[in-house]
Amino acid sequence: MKNYRLQMEAAKQTYITTWTNRLQKVFWRNPDRLTATKVLCAIGVLILPFVLTGKAFIGVTLSLGTVAAALSETDDHPRGRLKALLITIISFAITTVSVSFLKDYPIFFGIGFIASTIVFVIIGGISERYKGISYGAILIGIYAMLVYNGELNKLLIPTLLCSGALFYGLISLLLLYHKPWRLLEEQLSRGFTALAGYLEEKAKNFPGVEDEQADIGHKLALLNIQVVSALERCKQVINIYGQEVKNQKELLPYLQRLMLLQSLHERAASSHERYEKLNKKVEYKELLEGFAELLHQLSHASQLVAENMLTGASYNHPVSIGWIIHALEIEIEKIPYKDRQLLELFLHNLTRSHHSLKNLNNPEESTSIPRLGQDSRNTWQRIKDQLNWSHPRLRYAIRLSSCFLIGFLIVHFFKQDKGEWIMLTSLFVSQPTYSETRRKLFQRILGTITGVVIGVVFLQILPTQIGQFLLLLMSAFLFFYWLRTKYSNAVIFITIYVLATNSLTSDIGFNILTPRIVNTFIGALLSFLAIRFLWPNWQHKVLPQLLSEAFLNNARYFLQIIHDFKKHSEDDYDYRLARRLAHKSDNALTLSWQSMQVEPRKRKSLMRQAFTLTYLNHALLAHLSALGAHRDDKAIDYLNMEMEISQIENALKEAAKTLNTDEDPDQKTILKPLLIQLRDRINQSNNINEKKKLRLLYNIAGVSNKLLRESSALGNIH
């Protein structure tokens, strides 16, 4: 009987441990859910005692401090997070105390509010850490205006707001000390998730339909932005951790994951041929569908890596990938040699991705730590660089402060009820570019109206304070859950949150709804007018410069790839830097074309040319990535092709120069003889490795030639 009890107790303990581990995995798996849960717990603990004791105003004010602290939080090492928390509380205290003591003196308050906005925006340009803190400082100042009451002690509201922020900050800090590498793992996870989406979209090329290639190419360019942005963010966070970690070797596993993500992205972005050519042959349909399935499985594997980085589980590579590759190798051997070449290089690339993921848990031993690019400017230099009328950060600061000034004057002279919502909306809607501001504008207006309607319905259903408290908690959780991924949803729930806090603290009821909507419209309109008439930076004006930078960076990337073929060095920093700059330029081009679509009609004069050049530049980058992905292939070398390499380099540089000339585009055919020569050599060669080398160069030369003609045509139009 005793043994039976011991067995039952052991089984019970195992059951509890299993479910505890599962709950922990669910809790840690989704970064947005984690942040939302932290906010939920902080607000719940702060508000509930005061709601139960009839002092809801104190609890709501504390919760506003929590929201501001959560919105200002940035990715940092625990020691860096502690420093950031101290700076955050100090800046919050200065801002809220200033509001409390100056609110009754409109002139001094207005001057201080506008000046501090410009100062905080400039300070935010120093680094990512200060960017979050300065944004939170502006936000907490507006919250202090919203809850201001001249009859209360001047220090009460600042104390409550800062206490709420401190309480959330300590909860977040304790969780971070529990998992100190969590934020770095989150960023790497986002990178692998973005890569999974890119691979999933690329699978649509197999079987490819020629008429859909431009559309798929455009979608891939947009998804490429997400991958490159994630890589950039990973690099920034690793550098932030590197400043706080004494033993740099602790960073090595994360640097290896970053290097793996970069190499997987390079192979995924590579393109050797237009695969839709083979789709015209019915007998190749199943073979191409096999490539689609391989890309699907690699996408799934990348997503598994992303999830396992968050949960801490070991990665188990899908065995189906190896089977698919083996089957494809057999099928490729059956097709004619000429067509076989179109797919062999690409399969080789994907096979290497398969091996990299398969050996994820057993990386190669490395004695050196890979270098990452860092901003070497000191604090004063970073501030000084922003104090230039052409700098986007200073322009953004002036636009935002102009919105605040007009909003403040409207509130002061027209006695707008809760008019501070004008400033709050302007803060949320105003963005550095016209397209971003316009997108936020519609999301904010539609989200506010939807949130008001839903909020009214729920407040009718839940008229008690406990019901309103639960509605407040739910809306706060969902706001932070959707904030990163779907802003339009987040706006709905922050609107419901505001309605719930209002119902808890006052008897105004639904009379507040009309001014809430009106003030939202005013704030959104001010943001739109500011970006429309103050340095809108129309894309057709910056397009030639963006293209010129893209062509030059592609030329540098091309030369660095060739350099790596000739000299295999352990430190590939220069290569990674050239690749990064080429991808950043490509992203800037894609974003420019995307932004041009929402600009006024008369500003869209170069839409067609912008699309063509953006598509061609991304195609060139795909071919360069294919070349770069083979740079460690010792069977391929370019030692005897200096002339051809030089011609392609000159063509890309010439394309950059012709953007501002009036030369006849028909004369820009300097690569035509090279293309004929390469094609003839491909047809005549019997050496497999030489054919691979020539085909890669031919693809790069062909797209470069098209870019040269199109850029010259754009130069004439511009």
Account of the 3D structure:
This protein is mainly α. It folds into four domains: 27-180, no CATH class; 183-358, Methane Monooxygenase Hydroxylase, Chain G, domain 1 (Up-down Bundle); 400-535, no CATH class; 539-717, Methane Monooxygenase Hydroxylase, Chain G, domain 1. It is 77% helix and 0% strand. It has 27 helices and no strands. The protein has helices at 2-29, 31-52, 56-72, 78-102, 106-124, 128-146, 156-178, 182-202, 213-244, 252-269, 276-279, 285-311, 320-334, 337-358, 379-386, 392-414, 420-429, 434-461, 465-482, 487-505, 513-533, 539-566, 573-596, 607-629, 642-657, 672-684, 688-717. Helix 5 (106-124) runs antiparallel to helix 16 (392-414), helix 10 (252-269) crosses helix 24 and helix 22 (539-566) packs antiparallel against helix 25 (642-657). The protein is globular and about 90 Å long. The protein starts with a helix and ends with a helix.
Features:
single chain, about 725 residues, mainly alpha, Methane Monooxygenase Hydroxylase, Chain G, domain 1, 27 helices, globular
How would the blueprint of this fold be written?
Elements: H1 2-29, H2 31-52, H3 56-72, H4 78-102, H5 106-124, H6 128-146, H7 156-178, H8 182-202, H9 213-244, H10 252-269, H11 276-279, H12 285-311, H13 320-334, H14 337-358, H15 379-386, H16 392-414, H17 420-429, H18 434-461, H19 465-482, H20 487-505, H21 513-533, H22 539-566, H23 573-596, H24 607-629, H25 642-657, H26 672-684, H27 688-717
